[in-house]
Fold this protein.
Amino acid sequence: MTLAPLIKLNDGYSIPQVGLGTWPLDDDQAATAVVQALEAGYRHIDTAVKYGNEQGVGNGLRASGVDRSEVFITTKVDGQFQGSDRAVEGLDGSLKRLGLDYVDLFLVHWPLPQRDEYVSTWKTFERLQAEGKVRSIGVSNFKPAHLERLMAETDVVPAVNQIQLSPAITRTAEREFHDRHGIVTQSYSPLGGDGAGLLSAPILSRLGEKYGKTPGQLALRWLVQNRIVTIPKTSNPERMRENLDIFDFALDPQDLAELAILDEGPDAGNDSDVTGH
């Protein structure tokens, strides 16, 4: 059974570098997937209020027989719980659905800058962390400008920023900003998203022959070699094992450099100034 290495967070806790993404699974599907993932060696499960499957994630965790203390659970508060103390209600609802006393990582799902509530939301996050309801606090889909304001007006630097990131959407400037400020970069849609052409790129097929790995494994290996945490989503047990089987090889420096041809540029992917929920 493969276990992903741990990445240290700026608050002293650690996060497994590869986890299971659970969107768009429903409760029943999520429960089954969590059991299968934990059997395969995953110790990091990602969910969100918006996904509508927190209860299933909690059910799967309990059905697995794996001790709660061994599993890193992330959830995210949706826009309806932004502003003032609404995040308290948001977290309480998540904990009730999950059947847990705390979550390991609590994220602001989107900045929603047009609503201008993410700073007050973050101040509530700081209090929830101090009260022990969450261990680590972070954000998702935040740009450097959003983070700069957050850090200027609050006390706690986010432990994590979860963003859309893959070899095709590299977010180089964002990653450099995170590194300068001790924020761990976490990738969602690491394999390019549904229907994406990333995994059919000829360079991944060619390198797959060299390393004896699939295109998906090569894309995930690119992420982990760049010290990025990632949460590939799948409900297929074989694919779960495949996605975790990336720690027995390393991409050569020249191959890492060559994969830069997959980058679609700084404007690729979603724009959290204009989208979110």
Q: What stands out?
A: The CA atoms of residues 164 and 189 lie 6 Å apart. Strands lie at 6-8, 14-16, 20-21, 44-46, 72-77, 103-108, 134-140, 160-164, 184-188, 229-230. The first helix runs from residue 27 to 40. The radius of gyration is 18 Å.
